[in-house]
Design goal:
The structure is a single chain. The chain has helices at about 1-30, 40-45, 250, 255-265, and strands at about 65-75, 80-90, 95-100, 130-135, 135-140, 145-150, 150-160, 165-175, 185, 190-195, 200, 205, 210, 225-235. It folds into two domains: about 1-45; about 65-240, Immunoglobulin-like (Sandwich). It contains four helices and 14 strands. The relative contact order is 0.17. The strands form four sheets. It has a six-stranded mixed sheet with strand order 5-4-8-2-1-14, with no helix packed on it. A four-stranded antiparallel sheet has the order 6-7-3-11, with no helix packed on it. A hairpin with a 3-residue loop joins strand 12 (about 205) and strand 13. The termini are far apart. The protein is an alpha+beta fold.
Length: about 260
């Protein structure tokens, strides 16, 4: 009798197990060829924001920003001072309750995570955010609205940013330029390579939402396409190398330098 009960119990368990497997296959309905595709990407295919051939889908979007940045270098102290106005456009179909801002200069902030060792003399207290204004409302130092963490800052919105709408963020900031570590810093006295120097929104995309990826050093960058108006102030005996469309050449350079600049183009 016991053997019969065990056999019946065994077949009952097998039957239940098979039913569960069939149910799971029916509910997920995933092709074997799609098993290697992450769930977020499969969702993007369904939403028609992406195509399997790599081309953008019919509903693909990119959010954008327009920047107006004023930045100044104080070579005596090695301090970069900046103020910027970011007009952020939500082109996504989602309503956003926050904007994530990247503070990549915080790779040299004391206590932050890094992929490599840096000279201890290059460590500082991070980017100093002296003023933060969102749509005319100052929220500087408000822990309910501003949340920092390892080269990322989240600005919590009082109401959601609806699809197709813009938000204006103004930030005054400064940080000390490092001297001895690679990728950016002060080299050979008065020569400075200034990179990753301004706060900017992280990408919000159709696959993962906000790309909240801390900058830790050995990292490639993922940014929105944006428009920039940048005004740089340095001592009068300094020259600036930068990408972009050069403005005010005639007002800044002498005629012989202008000839050389135009010849190089």
């Amino acid at each position: 009798m016991k053997k019969i009960l065990y056999i019946l119990l065994f077949f009952l368990l097998v039957a239940c197990g098979n039913n569960n497997i069939k149910k799971a296959k029916t509910e997920t309905n995933i092709k074997t060829s799609d098993l290697y595709v992450i769930e977020e990407m499969r969702d993007a295919y369904k939403a028609e924001t992406r195509n399997k051939n790599g081309k953008p889908g019919e509903n693909y979007f990119q959010n954008r920003s327009d920047f107006v940045i004023n930045v100044k270098l104080d070579p005596e102290t090695g301090t970069i001072y900046g103020s910027e106005k970011i007009t952020y456009k939500n082109n996504s179909p989602d309503s956003l309750n926050k904007i994530v801002i990247k503070l990549e200069a915080d790779i040299f902030k004391k206590g932050n995570i890094r992929d490599y060792a840096v000279n201890p003399n290059d460590l500082h207290d991070g980017m100093q955010l002296k003023k933060i204004i969102v749509n005319g409302e100052e929220i500087t130092g408000n822990p309910e609205r501003v949340k920092n963490g390892n080269s990322l800052m989240s600005i919590i919105m009082p109401g959601k940013i609806a699809p197709g709408y813009e938000t204006v963020i103004e930030i005054d900031w400064s940080f000390t330029l490092n001297k001895q570590s690679f990728r950016m810093g002060n080299y050979e006295g008065n020569n400075s390579f200034v990179a990753y120097w301004y706060p900017k929104p992280a990408v919000y995309d159709d696959v993962i939402g906000w790309a909240e990826i801390s900058y830790t050093g050995i990292t490639e960058f993922y940014n929105d396409f944006s428009n920039y108006e940048v005004n740089v102030t340095v001592p009068k005996d300094y020259n600036i190398w930068s990408t972009g469309v050069f403005q005010y050449k005639v007002e800044i350079y002498t005629s012989d330098i202008l000839v050389r600049i135009n010849k190089s183009l």
